[in-house]
Amino acid sequence: MSWVEAEEYFAENDIVILPVGSNEQHGPANPLGTDHLIAKAIAEESAKRTGVLCLPVVPFGVSSHHRQFWGTIYVSPKAFKEYVKEACLALKYYGVRKIVIVNGHGGNLASLSELAREMREEGVFVSVFQWWPAAARLLPDLFDLEERKHASAEETSVNLALHPNIVNMAKAVDEKSREHPVQAEGITLPLDTTDFSKTGVWGKSTTASAEKGKKDLEAIIDELARHVKLLKNAKIEDLAERSKV
Ligand SMILES: [Zn+2]
Fold first, then answer.
1. CA–centroid distance, residue 152 to ligand 1 (Å)
2. How far is the CA of 44 from the centre of ligand 1 (A)?
3. pTM above the 0.85 mark?
4. Dihedral (CA of 119, 120, 123, 124) sign
5. What is the DSSP-derived secondary structure letter of residue 27?
6. Is residue 201 a contact partner of residue 174, using CB atoms and an 8 Å limit?
7. What's the pLDDT tens digit per position in 165-176?
């Protein structure tokens, strides 16, 4: 898109889709780019179906907890939030008032939630879509719990459906997570992945298939497109910061 085409788009539309992800270990079988590649793919397909502009993907995210695995390129929560927020503010300059962030990595969520709240005060309504909780609700029987964890069968299946040439199923493993010795109910610990996994896989990945991945993707993209359409048709006056009561 040239700036002339951008001008035409922003004159008619106040909504965009922004995919964000991470570059982090996903076990021995999956590419480091898994989270940003999946976010980009589902964001672009939903954009096509809804006539909404999709921006380039932000590839690096908040994943220092995977850093002991080679090739994990991470940034701090603060840097991530500020970087994405400034991109959102640049969009506001062109009249964008609604932004759907398609997040491919759970570690980014806390920063994105803070950002969305701050952007609402700026008069911009930001929603955050994550495909794996959507899939667990929409297709509860497609995978079991051990297949729905980090780099396990569900994520591997989606990779197989999107880009089989960069998945090496010969290296796929199943690994049951070790419980930390001080873990108890109600406790949150500052764990790194190496505290409970040797391979970087949590759960079962060998049962992955492109066919299951395609089913997942259809449901995920339908749901994301449904949300984008709803937001596209919503008026910013009904979404924006409320005045004092
Ligand atoms: Zn992932």
1. 9
2. 18
3. yes
4. positive
5. T
6. yes
7. 999 999 999 999
